[in-house]
Amino acid sequence: MKKIIVDEDIVGARLDKAIAQKYEELSRSNIQKLLEDNKITVNGKIQKASYKVNKNDEIEIEEVEAKPIDLKPQDIPLDIIYEDNDIVVVNKQKGLVVHPANGNPDGTLVNAIMAHCKGSLSGIGGEIRPGIVHRLDKDTSGLIIIAKNDKAHIGLSEQIKNREVKKTYIALVRGIIKENEATINMPIGRSTKDRKKMAVSKNGKSAITHFKVLERYDNKYTLVEVRIETGRTHQIRVHMAEIGHPIIGDTVYSNGKNEFGIEGQMLHSQKLTFKHPITNEILNLEAPLPQYFKNIVEKLQASTH
Asked: Nearest to residue 146, comparing CAs of 158, 161, 160, 156?
């Protein structure tokens, strides 16, 4: 347990900045994670990062020992949509975690990619995320780009930051959406009620989701094509739940019954359009819907027509 008694030189500072000033060995992301996991208290109470510290406040930081993750290449089957010397684009299966973390030390996309690329991956993402430029949730299937070298990684990251990568998803949601197309522009941040969840929050970061209705079924479900401008954590899942149309199978943001008996949300990253980070060629890539998703859609089509 680390302890800080607030003195004159940090009075009035934000809690996260005050800790960073006193403990330089803790990175900002470490401090953020400790705050999110409720491992930091002020005078015995949980406070937000934005809390302004007062003189003689007692800050206690519970130190969590990081479990070392030993990254090993693992022979996990991959559906590769595109590959050259600089990038690999994979159609990730549902249920596959992108990179190792506590709770998922191996069996991830990173382990599979390490075996496939035999050491040629960018190192910018850090030791546990080699090659990883962007993420997909464990139970979201579809296209994800991996960088094989740092130059490709930097080029792709710039495009993502500048919103130049076009990402299109297909989702099956609960209820009938009346509009044929619409835009959801609602900021998303960490939920104050449950730190593991995200939520629409006026203090969150900008999040913009466009959707278009593809089909409506049985007065119960809507198949939508979704395009995101921003890439916030759980963005599509949070936005669709917020407008009253949660994604089928999403156990986190939908309390509806799982009538199709599936694990994980029916959300698939179907298309990616981006500029090759080295050659500047425009790539338009597409991944077919997973078989289980197609089967459910065909059943709904049959019962509707």
From this structure: 156
The two tokens of residue 157 are 């990251």
Which CATH code, of 2.30.30.40, 3.30.2350.10, 3.50.50.60, 3.40.630.30, is assigned to 66-162? 3.30.2350.10
User: Which residue numbers are catalytic?
Assistant: 137
Domain range annotation of the chain: 2-61, 66-162, 163-287+298-305
Largest Cα–Cα distance in the chain? Answer: 72
How far is the C-alpha of 210 from the C-alpha of 227, rounded, in Å? 5
The count of residues in the chain is: 305
Asked whether the predicted pLDDT for residue 303 surpasses 80, the reply is yes
Kindly report each contact of residues 9-14 with a partner whose C-beta sits within 8 Å and lies 24 or more positions away, as own/partner.
10/53, 11/53, 11/54, 11/55, 12/52, 12/53, 13/52, 13/53, 14/49, 14/50, 14/51, 14/52, 14/53
pLDDT tens-digit series, residues 206-228? 999 999 999 999 889 999 999 99
| Residue 109, both tokens | 């996309």
Looking at domain 2-61, what is its CATH homologous superfamily? RNA-binding S4 domain (3.10.290.10)
Query: pTM here?
Result: 0.76
Mean pLDDT over residues 197-212, rounded?
A: 92
pLDDT exceeds cutoff 60 at 163: yes
